[in-house]
Amino acid sequence: MTEVAYRSQVRVERVKGPLRRAFLPVEEQPVLFSTHGEIAAHYKAQPGTFEPHATTIDYVVAATAG
Fold first, then answer.
1. Is 43 within 8 Å of 35 (Cβ atoms)?
2. With the C-alpha atoms ordered 23, 24, 26, 30, is the resulting torsion angle positive or negative?
3. What Rg, from alpha-carbon coordinates, does the chain have?
4. For the chain, does the N or the C end have fewer beta carbons within 10 angstroms?
5. pTM score over 0.70
6. How far apart are the first and last CA of the chain?
7. For residue 66, what pLDDT band results from cuts at 50, 70 and 90?
8. What distance in Å separates the CA atoms of residue 19 and residue 32, rounded to the nearest whole number?
9. Which candidate, 4, 36, 10, 32, places its Cα nearest to that of 23?
10. Rounded CA gap, 59 and 65, in Å?
11. Residue 5 CB coordination number (10 Å)
């Protein structure tokens, strides 16, 4: 195998419960991840407990589709 072409430097902080803050390359502001809709219901999150944000799976699907 040849040299590594790119290694992403990402830092993720857990804020509270499902809410996480991700610091991504070239993004000036952190990206927030949490739960919403059916995913929140699956994990039995009480409605109104956390502000809904996209989940990590939402970002994976978007990246794969793009």
1. yes
2. negative
3. 15
4. N
5. yes
6. 27
7. confident
8. 7
9. 10
10. 10
11. 5
